[in-house]
Structures are given as C-alpha cells and as structure tokens.
C-alpha cells in the first residue's frame, strides 16, 4: 500500500464503520442508492459460511475495524484467529472493540497481504471481506492467501467486481480509485471466477450481490 492509499484510509477511519453499516442517513443512501446492496446482509452471508463451532486457525485479512466480525468471533471461543491489516489505525479500533467485548481469541498484526508473515499451510480458513478491491497486487494477494491455507481449508469472502452496475463503476473510477480507497485494475465477474478456479479448481461457489462477488472456495488437498 502506497502513502496515498494509507493517508486516504487514515482520514476515513472515523467514518469507516458508518460507511460499511449504513447506520447514518448519508451512508444508508450511499449503500442502497449507489450500490443497491446491504453490506450487513452480505457480511452475514459470508460469515454464515463459518460454523460457530469452528475450532481451527483463521486468518482474517484485512480485518479492518472488525465491525462485522467481532460478534461472530465471540461465538467461536475455540477458534484461534489472526487479524491482519496494513492500517494501524484500523487495527487500533479493532483492538479496542475486542477488548470492550472481552474477546480474547483474536490476535492482531500489521502486515501486507502480498507478503504474509506466516508459513505455508498455517491456517484452516482464510477470510477476506472487502479486501481484494483494495489490494494493490491482487495476483500476489491471491497467491499468498492460497499459500498459507492448508489443503482442504476454506477460503471465503467478498470483493468488488466491475461491469455489474454502471453507477457503482463510475463512482469507483471517479472517486474511490482516485482517492486511493480502491486500487485498480479491478476484475470483472468472469475474470474473478476464472482467477478463483485457477487456484481452487471446481471447488468454487459464487453468489452474486450486484457489484460484489461473494465466494466460498475449498483448497484442493
């Protein structure tokens, strides 16, 4: 992540949760009128892919402020969760949230998804919600998340794909990309599915949510 993108996210941190959850009138309009989606529902559908009784190691990248995940992680006391993000400001908010909720099975680490500081096959599950449209080197991010996932492990999440909704594509090009909040180039739906299948073969499930691609993949053994 370059300095432009880092500075943009630092400025956005105070409003980040409002934007994602639509809990302010302006963020509700942003979500429902521009994107025609509800990130709360999408996040819930992704997290439902993970059973509450999950007992393995999870990598959550980017963990962000944990606005969508903290309640899920509270219901997974037997899981060992590592949350990684490039932004220290995001991590600080997540740390305060986990502390306030007395969630003790999550450790947080600053790092780059393009060079994950973990050995091969270190995790049973990799979660990436709203990450790949932010990552500057998407091919490297896919390679690294694949590398640290064990055979038979689950890779799930969601990210923006272009070409599904013109108003959203326009806003991404004219604002989010230019402000450094998203990082082009972006995949089309077909390109994203092809990329996932190149790694996970036929073990790929796709759910469409307009401009967001929701995915669930199992790594071949």
From TrEMBL:
GO terms for molecular function: methyltransferase activity. The keyword 4Fe-4S does not apply. It comes from Porphyromonas gingivalis. Keywords: Methyltransferase, Transferase. GO terms for biological process: methylation. The keyword Methyltransferase applies. Residues 58-153 form the Methyltransferase domain. Transmembrane segments: none annotated. The lineage of its organism: Bacteria, Pseudomonadati, Bacteroidota, Bacteroidia, Bacteroidales. This is Class I SAM-dependent methyltransferase. InterPro entries: Methyltransf_25 (IPR041698), SAM-dependent_MTases_sf (IPR029063). Pfam families: Methyltransf_25 (PF13649).
